[in-house]
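User: I've been going back and forth on whether these two constructs are worth ordering. Before I decide, could you fold them both?

Assistant: Sure. I'll take them in the order you sent them. The first construct and its structure tokens:
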Amino acid sequence: MNSQNSLTRRYFFGRNASAMGTFALANLLAAENSTKGDTSNLGSGGIMPAFHHVPRAKRIVYLFMSGGPSQMELFDYKPQLNIDNGKELPDSVRRGQRLTGMSGNQSTLPIAGPVFKFAQHGQCGHWVSELLPYTAKVADELCVVKSVHTDAINHDPAITFIQTGSQIAGRPSLGAWLDYGLGSTNENLPSFCVLVTKNKGGQPLYARLWGSGFLPSRHQGVQFRAGRDPVLYLSNPPGISNENRRSMLDAINQLHQMEFEERLDPIIEARVAASEMAFRMQTSIPEVSDFSGEPEHVFELYGAASKTPGTFAANCLLARRLLERDVRCVQLFHKGWDQHGNLPGGITTQCREVDQASAALVSDLRARGLLDDTLVIWGGEFGRTAYSQGQLTDKNYGRDHHPRCFSMWLAGAGVKAGLSYGVTDEYSYNILENPVHVHDINATLMHLLGIDHERLTYKYQGRRYRLTDVHGQVINDLMA
């Protein structure tokens, strides 16, 4: 200690902050751990000393269909739509619901009957559209929730809401909350990985959707990309070997250690940890991204597109490789589900791109013994309207945004396979039984992973925040 620092109050409290913080944290963790919760599969770097309750799932893969898939063309079979095709949507059904600016000025709201056929599949009898023949084959694995509803009617706030629990940007994402609470069980790969289908038009996706918000930045998702460098800025510059990089990191870490002893700034430790993780990822990322060892029957399972990096099919296969290496959370984003016009053509293309690979991921996880402790979820940010946006013809129509009800499916760990949950009216416009709010979905996901959504909080700007804000309840009916 130099004489100048010995005379400053700031230095005194800085030197003792670590000890005081450790004492306070020990008391908090003692209270948190008073029930002696399960610690198996609890990773490193998380805030929770034990699971809040025994987890059903060790990991989660979230297949997010950005744009709002139409529930009436996929899972929520409503023959009355075809019977009333072309008729005006009754006021008793609309109930004064606000409309977007895209259809709010229409003089008429004609009911549009889907042009696609439905059939029941599996022993459970799930109704599934002809657009999803591969998904239909795994019907008995699926828990289809037809009564999800949200608060937002436009894309950006709705996507932000379902991903972060708030329509306003700046909150941590689901994967960030999981890493903050549970930590990582693989020291060589990120705990939260994000895969976005390449070359897809549609509503823009922002990194904040998998960001850490006000949580420490180490909890944000790491995006993988198609091409030579799956993770940006990971490869060594030309002329720099791994030995050179290791020597450089050792020297920098020594400087960081000296700085930390002087300032006791936790950001310094986070910077060192990030650099070390990046160095390890120089080996682990190329290995997990290399499909050369996959047998041909696996590519046949996921579809021909699985051999093309960056496609949804290839991302599903990469997701499986990440999950089997104990990555905690993998999220796939697939844009293009926003069919305001030409819905029949547009949704046919979308389903062709995702159907086989989505079902293959479920089947592949089951075959490898991973589905029993892996939670799979599929869905978008809201649904579509029963009425047509724009001109309605025999073969063409569009649908506007609809937050009142939409469908999602879950499969795997802890989920009641073969269950159809929630009932909508004959137009798939309002919920009649068992409504499930977006906060309820997120509360249930966290519960399956061993987290009480009301107890995992972070204090920011004077109040404690959580993924479900001050709402949400666990839907126990969905659990096996």
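The second construct, handled the same way:
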Amino acid sequence: MSKYILLATGGLLKTIQGVLFGLGALGILSIAFLDAGMIPLPGGPDAAVTTLSHLNHRLMPLYVLAAIVGSTFGCLIPYYIGWKTGPSALRRFDTRKIVRVSALLDRYDLWTVLIGAILPPPFPLKLFLIAAGVFRMNLWRFLLALAIGRTVRYSLEGWMAVRYGENAALLFKQHYPRIGLGLAAAILIIILLNTFLKSRRQQTV
């Protein structure tokens, strides 16, 4: 019975994805919103951006923008769940991870979410999104961090779709983990450098 339900659900999601693909930018926005809101469709916004950008180069910037907007605002769903439900929303996550995430959000809220939005799977972004709500991260800083991170990801996808065509999705899957980790490392270096310079200035005062 459960296998039948899973197959039926998978078929329904594929049907929804096909319909949304046909809506162009509006479809991408919807797919990205649902994916970020914890209702993932097969391939998600990544497949939508690369496929439609390859088919219509001229509209690539619009497709990228739609994915950024949909994904950014879709992340408000897990954020709101955390905000409304409180610590109980984190019960299914490991306690040690929750403690680390709490410390990071308390000290580097925007940077933490930004890095999470850039890093590829299996980074547990949903934990950070829910925790941001639980620990009452400023909403505008939350949205800004996500918008920047998603701009990096989807802009790269759109560019690769125009540049490499049908091979873009495979190339992105192969190379984005290294690119994402490199960008995250660069951000961490900026944070550490900024912290060091602040400490030096305080010592000289």
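Notes on the second construct follow. The chain has a mean pLDDT of 83. The chain has nine helices and no strands.
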